[in-house]
């Protein structure tokens, strides 16, 4: 169990984190979601024990990060957002270098490196220089370096930025295997679909503040009042606003009302009477992206 207790962090005048508190169950895959600059990396670095100068505390199984930082660090594997590898060395040599940082001994280290190479699917490229690797392979090796000491908590800061869909899927598989083996995962992203796909609990962060956190299914249920999506020629704000609250979404409009099913019937009748033929008229279940927008007024994309 990880307990984050009132963490705040300031860089000069910038309030990067403002009194953040949440908890993560053991074995969970926790997604930290927010737009660029929201404070995700800062929080990840504090949770990893790398960034020391902050207010508040974090407890891992009742150990406080401010008092038992080294003990906690041994249980954590941190995958930074920036690729942190030596390009002129092979994959195996990079892993050996990181293994030495974790003070793993020679024979045990080589055995562990073989296990990690299999885990990240790079056995065949172990002897190749990192400079010959694709972006996705570098990302996987970056993850491998954080797994050498068998951490029970793995913290990954936007590990899929700038890679192709195939590499992304293989990173998802690595994460799912880690979770199956009992690890707790903390995963940050500004791609909502990734988090929906991978994580069982989430924290939504915007402008240094935690807008919401909890189990994914509880959150979806809490914010899940369906609305109506309608699009077509002749359908505009004036046409719809007598039925409820209207907002533009993509090529059409979202219509929020007390009873969306009843509204759908009324809109359908009205369309027939007016000889208007929508090409889409359907109930729309909010996604995490909508919930985030509803809570913060901030879009996750194009920031
Ligand atoms: N070392 C630093 N010095 C000064 N300001 C910083 C520093 N690191 C981060 N910040 C600022 O703190 C805020 C939060 O940044 P942070 O990198 O934690 O956000 P993020 O959610 O991880 O963003 P991204 O998705 O772009 O990585 C931003 O306003 C950023 O400019």
From TrEMBL:
Pfam families: ABC_tran. Signal peptide: none annotated. It comes from the Bacteria. SMART domains: AAA (SM00382). Keywords: ATP-binding, Nucleotide-binding. Residues 2-232 form the ABC transporter domain. GO terms for molecular function: ATP binding; ATP hydrolysis activity. PANTHER family: LINEARMYCIN RESISTANCE ATP-BINDING PROTEIN LNRL. This is ABC-2 type transport system ATP-binding protein. It comes from Halobacillus dabanensis.
């Amino acid at each position: 169990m990880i307990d984050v207790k009132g963490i705040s962090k300031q860089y000069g005048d910038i309030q990067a984190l403002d009194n953040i508190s949440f908890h993560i169950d053991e074995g969970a895959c926790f997604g930290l979601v927010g737009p660029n600059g929201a404070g995700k990396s800062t929080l990840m670095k504090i949770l990893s024990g790398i960034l020391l100068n902050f207010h508040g505390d974090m407890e891992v199984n009742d150990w406080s990060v401010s008092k038992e930082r080294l003990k906690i660090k041994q249980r954590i594997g941190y995958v930074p957002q920036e690729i942190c590898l030596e390009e002129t060395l092979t994959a195996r040599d990079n892993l050996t270098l990181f293994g030495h940082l974790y003070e793993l001994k020679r024979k045990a280290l080589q055995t562990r490196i073989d296990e990690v190479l299999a885990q990240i699917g790079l056995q065949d490229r172990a002897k190749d220089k990192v400079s010959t690797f694709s972006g996705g392979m570098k990302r996987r090796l970056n993850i491998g370096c954080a797994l050498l000491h068998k951490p029970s908590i793995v913290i990954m800061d936007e590990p899929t930025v700038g890679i192709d869909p195939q590499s992304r899927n293989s990173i998802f598989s690595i994460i799912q295997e880690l979770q199956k083996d009992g690890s707790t995962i903390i995963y940050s992203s500004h791609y909502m679909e990734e988090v929906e796909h991978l994580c069982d609990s989430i924290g939504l962060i915007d402008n240094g503040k935690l807008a919401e956190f909890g189990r994914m299914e509880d959150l979806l249920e809490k914010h899940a009042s369906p609305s109506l999506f309608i699009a077509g020629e002749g359908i505009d704000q004036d046409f719809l606003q007598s039925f409820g609250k209207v907002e533009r979404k993509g090529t059409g409009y979202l219509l929020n009302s007390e009873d969306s099913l009843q509204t759908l019937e009324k809109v359908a009748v009205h369309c027939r009477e007016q000889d208007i033929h929508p090409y889409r008229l359907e109930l729309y279940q909010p996604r995490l992206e909508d919930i985030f927008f509803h809570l913060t007024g901030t879009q996750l994309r194009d920031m």
